[in-house]
Amino acid sequence: MSQIIMGIETSCDETGVGLVRLSADSGEPRVELLADEVASSVELHARYGGVVPEVASRAHLEAMAPTARRALATAGLSLSDVDAIAVTAGPGLAGSLLVGVAAAKAYAAALDVPLYGVNHLAGHVAVDTLEDGPLPKPCLALLVSGGHTQLLRVDDVATKITELGSTVDDAAGEAYDKVARIVGLPYPGGPPIDKAAREGDPAAIAFPRGMTGPRDAPFDFSFSGLKTSVARWIEAAERQGEPIPVNDVCASFQEAVADVLTMKAVAAAQEYGIGTMVISGGVAANSRLSALARERCEAAGIELRVPRPRLCTDNGAMIAALGAHVVAADLPTSPLDFSANPALPVSTVTVR
Ligand code: KG4
Ligand code: ZN
Asked: What is the domain-level CATH number for residue 181?
């Protein structure tokens, strides 16, 4: 027997609708990706150098129904084929979440199918099952994006996720976006910095590794000091009238970020005796982060799983995949009057 799950994601600037097929005849549930449609409002925010919440909500409102129609068309399905709806209940921008949650409630009520409000962060982990199959229990997840930087222990993606550490200030992707602005590269800063860094020397400038002191929390991160160091370094070079070696600055900054993220993730896996690591979120697309993670995981005997970049950034497929695991686990549905929660903790995978 199989079921079609629709996933709706609107927590930030991507309107995503995904469709998956859940087959749960015997043993581990199988989840197959049927469609993954995303409408991004990133260009509308580019000139502000960051996401403008009101602009994002309006864009979601315009994109919601067309994106759902496109997903159904891609999968060759109609609305009546949908057996359950999952939607991001949080964390995220309040106004943006509201659009997806309202749409999900309308679809669920109109189709008379179960509704599940689910956690966006858990979705970033669940998406990996679309590519690499069932997740070993437990596994360690490193989530790195413009909005989050977290180390999670995942005992069961549908029911038991524990935060081991998170950023105390900027998210990793936010640091990329801010440093890009400082060196004069466009928003979002990750891809252009990644490109510039390929031509630079990662050892040119010794930027600080935040939160790695003996008295710091072992699995928390801090990137705001690093961003300030880059700004100070550029100011000093400008005062001396020297040309700015943008490629070297980008490579050295990127090295500092990748070094801290992989060092702490591997240390957490070792501390908790976990043999599999999943890296997800927009920054997982970073070439140096994945290369260094591969190197260090291999040396430590840890299996590394990184979903393809398209699935790492925000999308509806990740919410559909999580929805499928929630359905397979036979968890209670969310009531039609549940609320979006911009600060939903990662330990709450489904909202009741
Ligand atoms: O997951 P995502 O699409 O959205 C959320 O923030 O939830 O992540 C976007 C972030 C941006 O900050 C962007 O600069 C960063 O991911 N990013 C990268 C790369 N591609 C995207 N950072 C480093 N290297 C990349 N190649
Ligand atoms: Zn995200």
From this structure: 3.30.420.40
Q: Could you tell me what percent of the chain has a pLDDT over 70?
A: 100
The pTM of the full predicted model, rounded to 2 decimals, is 0.95
Classify strands 30-40 and 276-280 as parallel, antiparallel or unpaired: unpaired
Closest-CA residue, ligand 1 atom 22, reads 190
Task: Please give the tally of structural domains in the chain.
Answer: 2
Rounded Cα distance between 136 and 134, Å, is 6
Q: Is 282 in the pocket of ligand 1 (CB under 6 A)?
A: yes
Same-domain check for residues 255 and 326: no
Atom from ligand 1 closest to the CA of residue 309: 20
CA of 39 to the centre of ligand 1 (A): 16
Which distant-in-sequence residues (6+ apart) come within 8 Å of 310 by Cβ?
36
Q: Are residues 288 and 175 in the same domain?
A: yes
More confident residue, 151 or 215: 151
SS3 state of residue 123? helix
Q: Which residues contact 268 (CB under 8 A, 6 or more apart)?
A: 140, 151, 153, 164, 165, 218, 219, 274
Q: Encoding tokens for residue 301?
A: 């005997």
Task: Please name which of 97, 113, 112, 87 lies closest in space to residue 4, comparing C-alpha atoms.
Answer: 113
Q: How far apart are CA 175 and CA 181, in angstroms?
A: 10
Confidence of residue 66 (pLDDT cuts 50, 70, 90): very high
Asked if residue 134 belongs to a domain, the reply is no
Q: What is the mean pLDDT of residues 1-17?
A: 96
Instruction: Please indicate whether residue 49, judged by its CB atom, sits closer than 6 Å to ligand 1.
Output: no
Is residue 142 within 8 A of residue 277, CB to CB? The reply is yes
Q: Minimal CA–CA distance to 20: which of 70, 71, 89?
A: 71
- Does residue 41 line the site of ligand 1, with CB under 6 A? no
**Does residue 53 belong to any structural domain of this protein?**
yes
Q: Using alpha carbons only, what angle is made at residue 119 by residues 130 and 337, rounded to the nearest 5 degrees?
A: 125
| Owning domain of residue 339 | 2-127+315-351
CA distance 116 to 5: 10
Statement to judge: residues 196 and 155 lie in one domain: yes
